[in-house]
């Protein structure tokens, strides 16, 4: 049974494998995982899916495989959220909008209403995303149970400006969908912890597992509290990673160490900061 809306949530991260280039099969697999998550003895308030779970990194065929306007995904996920009375941060999907393909996270509330959509703004050149995908142009802050949250996709977490901007807009929790591969596990864990500590917010990150011809994805989905403590972490296999989070902890941490009051934005940013001395 859900606790008081907006203060305490049970989270379930669906740390699944993804079949490259098989959207129908991926939907069938994902719906089984979602059904397993909602049937658990502790029913989740929020379930989170990984990045590009409809197609995987089938980039050379992505314009044919991407969901047109995300309409099929929207119909399916909205119906599931409403039927099961849960919020769904639907990872991200390849979405074809007027012939351009975006890597888009879509979020639905318990009533099945879409409360936000965010297209990845930082495309990852190491996987040639910029050759096949179009970047989004805006951050996304959204609300679930009147609690402000922010959206982030994989490579985005290397850019602290995004999470900082979202927390300045009021976000108390950052949802991250990822397909983050070996050998950069150390980066994944460190960056997620840093985003939680510096912004004094929950970071809830779902990463896929499994292999493609070129990459091996390590899972290690994580739920990190605003002190930077890891309260749940996945293995390298398919599983549902769960934890209960108390969102009132965010205000407690922000009152204890007043990072947001102590910021000096007038000194930040190249061209804005005053450099006292330059050596040599
Ligand atoms: O930044 C990284 O090391 C991984 C990023 C990534 O795999 C992605 O954005 O898809």
UniProtKB/TrEMBL annotation:
Annotated TM spans: none
Kindly state which keywords UniProt assigns to this record, in alphabetical order. Answer: Hydrolase
Q: Could you cite one Gene Ontology molecular function of this protein? A: hydrolase activity
What superkingdom does the record give? Bacteria
Query: Which Gene3D superfamilies does this one have?
Result: Carbon-nitrogen hydrolase
Tell me what this protein is called: Hydrolase
Identify the taxonomic lineage of the organism of origin: Bacteria, Bacillati, Bacillota, Bacilli, Bacillales
Q: Which SUPFAM superfamilies match?
A: Carbon-nitrogen hydrolase
Q: Which residue numbers delimit the CN hydrolase domain?
A: 9-247
Per the record, the similarity remark reads: Belongs to the carbon-nitrogen hydrolase superfamily. NIT1/NIT2 family.
**Which PROSITE patterns does the record match to this protein?**
CN_HYDROLASE, UPF0012
């Amino acid at each position: 049974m859900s606790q008081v809306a907006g203060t305490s949530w049970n989270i379930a991260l669906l740390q699944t494998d993804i079949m490259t280039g098989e959207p129908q099969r991926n939907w069938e697999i994902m719906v089984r995982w979602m059904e397993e998550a909602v049937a658990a003895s502790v029913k989740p308030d929020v379930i989170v899916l990984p990045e590009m779970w409809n197609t995987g990194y089938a980039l050379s065929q992505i314009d044919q495989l991407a969901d047109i306007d995300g309409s099929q995904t929207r119909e399916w996920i909205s119906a599931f959220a409403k039927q099961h009375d849960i919020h769904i941060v639907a990872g991200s999907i390849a979405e074809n909008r007027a012939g351009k393909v975006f890597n888009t996270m879509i979020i639905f509330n318990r009533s099945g209403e879409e409360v936000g959509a965010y297209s990845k703004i930082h495309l990852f050149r190491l996987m040639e995303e910029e050759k096949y995908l179009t970047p989004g142009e805006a951050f996304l802050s959204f609300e679930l149970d009147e609690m402000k949250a922010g959206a982030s996709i994989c490579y985005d977490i290397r850019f602290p400006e995004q999470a900082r901007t979202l927390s300045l807009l009021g976000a108390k929790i950052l949802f991250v969908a990822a397909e983050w591969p070996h050998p950069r596990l150390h980066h994944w864990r460190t960056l997620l912890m840093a985003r939680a500590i510096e912004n004094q917010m929950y970071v809830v990150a779902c990463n896929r597992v499994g292999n493609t011809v070129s990459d091996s994805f390590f899972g290690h989905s994580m739920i990190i509290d605003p002190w930077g403590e890891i309260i749940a972490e996945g293995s390298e296999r398919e599983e549902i990673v769960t934890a209960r989070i108390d969102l009132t902890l965010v205000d407690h941490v922000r009152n204890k160490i007043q990072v947001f009051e102590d910021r000096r934005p007038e000194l930040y940013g190249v061209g804005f900061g005053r450099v006292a001395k330059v050596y040599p």
